[in-house]
Design a protein that fits this description.
It is a single chain. By secondary structure, this protein is an alpha/beta fold. The protein has a single domain, classed as 3-Layer(aba) Sandwich (Hypothetical Protein Mth938, Chain: A), CATH 3.40.1230. About 20% of the residues lie in helices and about 25% in strands. The chain contains three helices and eight strands. It has a five-stranded mixed sheet. Strand 4 and strand 5 form a beta hairpin. The longest helix has 13 residues. The chain is globular, with a radius of gyration of 13 Å. The two termini are about 15 Å apart. About 25% of the residues are buried.
Length: about 120
């Protein structure tokens, strides 16, 4: 899926997602990544179900408005305890498929919102 959006040159932008690849600012990623306000970081997790509050330490310091978790081709709910821990810190968190997370990320970024995303590439069904 090609994602086209009118945008400024600042920040990180998801340009395309395809099976096994996420393109961010012209660079392709085939492994899970975390997109912060200023950089793309690798994720050392096989899937979103493995996430714990420790994986959000940097986000807790920087305090984005919203955290999106793109769980790949299939939606996977994250543990309710993790959602509650982040909400207690004033950070909204939503899990969804990676395609939906990428679209939501782009809409929120185009509105100037502080949004971070944890994304797992789409896998073939």
């Amino acid at each position: 899926m090609q994602i086209d959006e009118i945008r400024d040159k600042q920040g990180l932008w998801i340009e395309e997602i395809d099976t096994g690849l996420i393109t961010i600012n012209g660079k392709q990623y085939s492994e899970p990544v975390c997109i912060t306000d200023i950089e793309v970081l690798p994720l050392a997790k096989n899937n979103a179900a493995e996430l714990s509050i420790e994986d959000f330490a940097l986000a807790l310091q920087k305090h984005p408005e919203v955290i999106l978790i793109g769980t790949g081709s299939q939606h996977v709910f994250i543990h309710p305890r993790l959602t509650a821990q982040l909400a207690a810190k004033g950070i909204g968190v939503e899990s969804m498929t990676t395609a939906a997370a990428c679209r939501t990320y782009m809409v929120l970024r185009s509105e100037g919102r502080s949004v971070w995303a944890w994304l797992w590439p789409l896998m073939e069904n």
